[in-house]
Design brief:
Layout lengths: L3 E2 L1 H7 L11 E6 L3 E8 L18 H19 L2 H4 L2 E13 L7 E13 L2 E10 L2 E14 L2
Antiparallel strand pairs: 1-2, 2-3, 3-5, 4-7, 5-6, 6-7
């Protein structure tokens, strides 16, 4: 596995599609352990028009969603294709989510994520989100891999 995935490679791993595919790149990949994801938060991102007009901010729930997508891509990239093919990853819990600074378009949001542990199909992760050196958010979350219906 490469230590970097582009958007097309992420699309091959995840079921998410535009406009809900939030991560643009995954790099510094340490198989099944950690990675850094990039979310290019743009002035024309789908949420900007209504959140909030004249003063756009990336919703905190979408930062958490991006954490989940980055974790799903890290995990899918590290396991055998048969283990994630025709499967979906669902968030099970979000803990200790803190939003420290508003994420304002146009910026590059970097998500540093780490797999804390796995037990069967359940994985636990933690992550921190940065714009430059400034911490924007952090959280812990759990997810599970389930069969597509």
């Amino acid at each position: 596995m490469s230590d970097k995935l582009n958007k097309k490679q992420i699309i091959d791993l995840l079921p998410h599609r535009e406009p809900m595919l939030l991560i643009d790149e995954l790099f510094n990949i340490k198989k099944l352990f950690s990675a850094t994801a990039v979310v290019n938060v743009k002035k024309d991102s789908f949420f900007v028009q209504g959140h909030f007009p004249g003063q756009p901010v990336m919703p905190g729930v979408l930062i958490v969603e991006a954490f989940g997508q980055a974790a799903a891509a890290l995990t899918a990239a590290g396991i055998d294709k048969s283990e994630y093919e025709n499967k979906l990853v669902f968030l099970m819990s979000v803990e200790k989510a803190r939003f420290r600074n508003p994420v304002i378009p146009d910026c590059k949001l970097e998500l540093k994520i780490e797999a804390i542990r796995s037990h069967g199909r359940v994985w636990k992760y933690k992550g921190e989100a940065f714009v430059g050196e400034k911490k924007m958010a952090d959280a812990q979350w759990s997810a599970t891999i389930v069969d597509r219906k």
